[in-house]
Please model this.
Amino acid sequence: MVDSWININDELPHDDQRVLAFIPENKIFLPGMDLKFEIREVIVLRFCANHFAGNPEKAAKHGLHFWAGEGSSNRYFKEVTHWSPIPARPQE
Model:
């Protein structure tokens, strides 16, 4: 299998594109488990190009772009190191 991960320094997704995002050592706290967590380095996020364009202070601190998640999984731009297109659905 060919490695399909794209470094964010090489290329970015299209604005509003949902992708698989790689976040090294990403901790997901487990509900009702008293601060227990799992490491889940791959999650689905939506790329938001120029999200902080109107807020130079936040852009300087977190990056110009943003990753919108599902639920509480939003991420600042610098947290994601690589991304990959979501594969096509299986053919029947």
Notes: Helices lie at 56-62. The first helix runs from residue 56 to 62. The chain is about 10% helix and 30% strand.
